[in-house]
Specification:
The protein is of the alpha+beta class. The protein contains twelve helices and 15 strands. The termini are far apart. InterPro entries: Bact_StressResp_Reg (IPR051932), PAS-assoc_C (IPR000700), PAS-like_dom_sf (IPR035965), PAS_4 (IPR013656), STAS_dom (IPR002645), STAS_dom_sf (IPR036513).
Length: about 375
């Protein structure tokens, strides 16, 4: 904006030149410095030589590039270049100065320290390079849903190039393909984080949608980070399937190792083999009680001929099975207790006084056939 107030112009110019990041140098047509202002002269290393009245060659004896650019400006050319002084990056603008008749009467250079801006740009470039080389897609949208950033190593997987979605309204472009994206975006605009899953082509993706804030903490849109979870989901399904198969096989083994056999009109036999752990005892109890109820059995024969050993836990399970059988009105009969097992039971203090025990399964079958309802 132009202003007619010379004092204001001078104040603004003075404030600009007092900045450490600004330098302004002017020369006349004879390459003599007519203006040398700005604290940036020190940073550029010419504070001692770039003084009014000094020749251009003397002021920038160690910087031949500056001499060349000034001389090009004296020929009527505008030049814009970057340079490095110490750890700082400078942007130089050289332009000719013309008199009232349009003739070139000198040249000027405005130098700005853009180190911070350039560092930010380079960091952004590095971040962009990183994002485009990892298996994820990153989007940023404004409050209208218009994409402002579209980067990621998985873009090619969905037929896109980095930056291709910039300017696209994601609500309009993807609401049909990804039904939950509108709800996720709206939640992010309210300050909430949402995770959605969706299929795209032959792949399955997981997308986290995050709130986006401006420098004042106000809602500025949303960030979306999507990753391909196809293989992970396949692995999870495979593991679940394997666990299910193993469980089914284990249950089948338990059933086969302790089958419930109908040995008479109203008698069931359960040959026990090996050890009796909690899972196996629970399975036997469930199956046996179901069989007693459905077949209206009066006798349940637990044959211990194949039992290897009995510990306190096994004994508790055995007592629990017998007690449950009684609650259904059936009589539990224990057969096949071998001497080592009988000794262990005695040492454990298991009360067998209320149990009906017989020597063998054959004796139990004979007992059941000779018994009548009144003799239960």
């Amino acid at each position: 904006m132009a202003t007619a107030d010379p004092a204001l112009k001078f104040q603004v110019l003075t404030g600009l030149l007092e900045s450490e990041s600004t330098t302004l140098i002017g020369i006349d047509a004879g390459e003599v410095l007519t203006l040398a202002e700005g604290r940036g002269l020190e940073a550029m290393g010419v504070a001692a030589t770039a003084t009014v009245g000094a020749s251009l060659a003397q002021a920038f004896a160690g910087q031949p590039g500056v001499l060349e650019h000034f001389r090009r400006s004296l020929q009527g050319e505008q030049v814009r270049v970057e340079s490095v002084h110490g750890q700082a990056y400078w942007l130089h603008s050289f332009y000719p100065l013309r008199g009232p008749d349009g003739a070139i009467v000198g040249a000027a250079m405005l130098a700005l320290d853009v180190t911070r801006d350039l560092t930010t740009v380079r960091q952004a470039e590095l971040l962009r390079e990183l994002v485009n080389n990892v298996p994820t897609n990153v989007f940023a949208v404004d409050t209208r849903g218009v994409c402002e950033v579209s980067e990621g190593g998985l873009l090619a997987q969905i037929g896109l190039k980095p930056g291709q979605n910039v300017g696209v309204n994601v609500f309009e472009a993807y609401n049909t393909l990804i039904p939950d994206i509108g709800l996720a975006m709206s939640a992010a605009f309210r300050g909430e984080t949402r995770v959605i899953e969706f299929g795209f082509g032959e792949s399955l993706y997981s997308q986290i949608t995050l709130p986006r804030r401006d420098a004042h903490g106000n809602n500025a849109g949303a960030y979306c980070i999507a990753s391909d979870i196809t293989e992970r989901r396949r692995t999870e399904e495979l593991l679940r399937s394997q666990v299910r198969i193993i469980q089914e096989q284990k249950e089948a083994i338990v059933r086969l190792s302790s089958p419930i056999i109908e040995v008479g009109h109203d008698a069931l036999a359960v040959p026990l083999v090996g050890s009796l752990d909690e899972q196996r005892a629970t399975s036997i109890l469930h199956e046996l009680l179901q069989a007693i109820a459905s077949k209206r059995a009066r006798f349940a024969i637990l044959d211990l001929t194949g039992v290897d050993t009995v510990d306190p836990t096994s004994a508790e399970h055995l007592v629990r099975i017998i007690h449950s059988v009684r609650l259904l009105g059936a009589q539990a009969i224990i057969t096949g207790i071998r001497p080592p097992i009988a000794r262990i039971m005695a040492e454990l203090g298991l009360d067998l006084s209320r149990l009906h025990t017989l020597r063998s399964l054959q004796d139990a079958l004979r007992y059941c056939s000779e018994s009548n309802p009144d003799g239960r």
